[in-house]
């Protein structure tokens, strides 16, 4: 039942989850390895990774940061 004097309720849109595709924005060498600043090409989220060796995957050093966080 609706009344002519009420506003419709705002229903939040579902969060669209996806696998991030990280693109390196910049990097620099440290004593621990290479610090890599990455950005997702799909949603523009950002993260800082540590790459200790070329043969190993980077290790996240921060949480994923978005404009909404």
- The level of helicity is under 10%
Q: Give the uncertain stretches in residue-range form.
A: none
Radius of gyration: 20 Å
Query: How confident is the prediction overall: mean pLDDT?
Result: 86
- Secondary structure tally: strands: 4
Task: Count up the helices.
Answer: 0
Strand content: 25-35%
Q: Which structural class matches the secondary elements?
A: mainly beta
SSE order: EEEE
> What is the CA-CA span between the terminal residues?
37 Å
Shape category: rod-shaped
Task: Tell me the major beta sheet.
Answer: 4 strands, antiparallel
Spatial sequence of strands, sheet with the most strands? 1-2-3-4
What is the fold's blueprint, element by element?
Blueprint: E1 22-29, E2 34-40, E3 46-51, E4 59-60
Antiparallel strand pairs: 1-2, 2-3, 3-4
Explain this structure.
The chain has 69 residues and is mostly beta strands. The chain contains no helices and 4 strands. A 4-stranded antiparallel beta sheet has the order 1-2-3-4, with no helix packed on it. β1 and β2 form a beta hairpin. The radius of gyration is 20 Å and the shape is rod-shaped. The mean pLDDT is 86.
Attribute tags:
mainly beta; four-stranded antiparallel β-sheet; 4 strands; rod-shaped; single chain; 69 residues
Outline:
The chain is an all-beta fold and 69 residues long. It has strands spanning 22-29, 34-40, 46-51, 59-60.
């Amino acid at each position: 039942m609706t009344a002519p004097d009420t506003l419709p309720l705002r229903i939040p849109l579902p969060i669209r989850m996806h696998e991030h595709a990280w693109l390196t924005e910049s990097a620099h060498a440290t004593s621990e390895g290479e610090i890599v600043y990455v950005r997702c090409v799909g949603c523009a989220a950002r993260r800082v990774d540590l790459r200790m060796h070329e043969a190993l995957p980077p290790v996240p050093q921060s949480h994923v940061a978005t404009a909404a966080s």
